[in-house]
Amino acid sequence: MNFADIFSLEGKIALVTGASYGIGFSIASALAEAGATIVFNDINEDFLAKGVAAYKDAGIDAKGYICDVTDEPAVQKMVAQIGEDVGPVDILVNNAGIIARTPMHEMEAKDFRKVIDIDLTAPFIMAKAVLPSMMERNSGKIINICSMMSELGRETVSAYAAAKGGLKMLTRNIASEYGAYNIQCNGIGPGYIETPQTAPLREPGHPFNSFILAKTPANRWGTTQDLKGPAVFLASAASDFVNGHVLYVDGGILAYIGKQP
Ligand code: NAP
Ligand code: GCO
User: What pTM does this model have?
Assistant: First the structure.
């Protein structure tokens, strides 16, 4: 295999969850640019339609499905439908996620459970749905979108940190349990990226903005573009002996003690 072919996704089918916009859209676009056929889902019909149109504008013929990633029968149905429509999933990216920013002592258990359900249980449900076919074909890539909060805590994000820390361990466990089937499961841990999820933290004058810049050696917020190369690497043959890792794409945050005030 020559060098360019190592990164090629020609002939592969990639399912990216929650990919109408934001990080999911950018990762799906990168996989498409590397040659993959893209399928994605959203829970919201309007966002799904906007997503399909945005892919079209980018020259990508992506197929969208309405599906809540926490609903196991709906996920099984969607994966079966994708099998009929385009073929079996070769690459799964568990991107759909939510965050709740609430002091833990004020958080209701139902709101904590909701974050765990979408950010941790759903990647299990999604992976479970694609694994049997990957095992049969002795080939597969699963990429879980983790977070700085897979390693670090901070005020107000207890449920999110618990879920993303758990997702790091689910990643290692899938790698351990299915590595013998030539299935690689790795994570991407984005640093602080400009998306709707972080919009409240980036409002003008919000102290979090200067806090994050002081914590990031790159001295900037990440963009969704920054995640494209790492996603193609982990989806392609270039990473066939890389399993159970989380690749942090954080401008150096985890390496740095932070700027002296
Ligand atoms: P975003 O802009 O809020 O997008 C999240 C996507 O997930 C949306 O399309 C949303 O759909 C979808 N989604 C939520 N719940 C769903 C469900 N139950 N079923 C199906 N889809 C669902 O988030 P983002 O910033 O792009 O983040 C994407 C992933 O990266 C998340 O897992 C997030 O935790 C992680 N991450 C983000 C950052 C960052 O700085 N932005 C950093 C580290 C990790 P609707 O819009 O229809 O609700
Ligand atoms: C926060 C959360 C998220 C981050 C991200 C960091 O601190 O509020 O951690 O908003 O975007 O997950 O990797």
Answer: 0.98
